[in-house]
């Protein structure tokens, strides 16, 4: 089977795209549940702190129910259910994209609308996965690109929703980048290690300079870790391009939101989605974009 996929580019790309559909469905679960799992953990930690000091903790903290869910709550349990009526999603109702079309975007039990974001993420993950397979072929670089892209999709949407970049994704991503580059998947190991260090330290310095000058917090530590992960995958040479792209796009969108949506300047804006977008741009066209940037200079 592996020989067939290696020798047939069309079949290989199509197979990876189908895999991307399944992964996209799982990413929807991660995006929805991981922030709530973090809230439950924080509630439990605060409740423990209250107990250690002999204080009376609120009932919600004592129960560890930061999200209102009872019992086991993880990426695999309980089964997915309609948030409106509690109807458990059956396997036939959980087929990526097709189930949404078959159900016409509504719950089969209560007819409540299902967010179009679910099939959009599934379809985007499939298309992106197929494009990575086409770009890198049957190689270790393709495997590294898929892991990175899937993680960036989850991180971008979670940060957009909650302004958090979970350590449960960013920290393993740093080590995975270094691990892939032990075998030269995307760059040499020396460049990857320097990239991880430089990625973290560059935004860490920006954070503290901004805080000392203005007295305010300009970004979260999750951004440092995400840029460190991108440095671990691509090497330090790609960091200037990633920072430039994410900053320019973020500034343009920020200005548009201020002018058109009348978003206040004091309202925080997540930076993770722009770092993720710049990382995907570097994945597909990093060398070409860097050459174009240097030519302009």
Report on this structure.
- The structure is a single chain.
- It is globular, with a radius of gyration of 21 Å.
- The protein has helices at residues 2-7, 9-52, 59-63, 98-102, 117-136, 140-162, 167-181, 189-214, 221-234, 239-260, 272-296.
- The chain is mostly helical and 297 residues long.
- Helix 6 packs antiparallel against helix 7.
- The protein is 69% helix and 0% strand.
Percent strand: under 5%
Structural class: mainly alpha
Mean pLDDT: 89
Number of E-type strands: 0
Gross morphology is globular
Uncertain segments: none
Q: How many helices?
A: 11
Query: In terms of quaternary structure, what is this?
Result: single chain
Helix coverage percent: 55-70%
List its salient traits.
single chain, 297 residues, mainly alpha, 11 helices
In short:
This protein is mainly alpha-helical and 297 residues long. The protein has helices at residues 2-7, 9-52, 59-63, 98-102, 117-136, 140-162, 167-181, 189-214, 221-234, 239-260, 272-296. It is built from eleven helices and no strands.
